[in-house]
């Protein structure tokens, strides 16, 4: 974009913002690299981390996905897990 813009900037989310002049029409070019994500909602006392999924996820996709959670103290490696049907059934009988 640099040959076509007066100014090129980047934000903390990885967006590229190019500006040509200060007036006239505005054009937005939107694209992504098929990278979906999740937003940490809280950290439970048992260490599990509920997430708000970002983007369109197929229901079978999140289990066993590897993640890098970026926090104020640095990256944390994580893996998405789901309740096994047998454990969920036993838990519902106990609850």
SSE pattern: EEEEEEH
Distance between the termini: 58 Å
Report Rg. Answer: 20 Å
- Name the poorly predicted regions: 90-95
Q: What portion of residues belong to β-strands?
A: 25-35%
How many DSSP H or I helices?
A: 1
The overall pLDDT average reads 76
Backbone shape = elongated
Q: Largest sheet at a glance? A: 2 strands, antiparallel
Structural class: mainly beta
- DSSP E strands, number: 6
Q: Level of helix content?
A: 10-25%
What's the arrangement of strands in the largest beta sheet?
Answer: 1-2
Helices and strands, with pairings:
Elements (H helix, E strand, L loop, with lengths): L6 E4 L5 E4 L17 E4 L10 E4 L11 E6 L2 E6 L5 H10 L1
Antiparallel strand pairs: 1-2, 3-4, 5-6
Overview of this structure, please?
It is a single chain. This protein has about 100 residues and is mainly beta. It contains 1 helix and 6 strands, in the order ββββββα. It has one helix at about 85-95; strands at about 5-10, 15-20, 35-40, 50-55, 65-70, 75-80. The protein has a two-stranded antiparallel sheet. A hairpin with a 2-residue loop joins β5 (about 65-70) and β6. The protein is elongated and about 55 Å long. It starts with 6 loop residues before the first strand and ends with a helix. About 0% of the residues are buried. The model is unreliable at about 90-95 (pLDDT under 50).
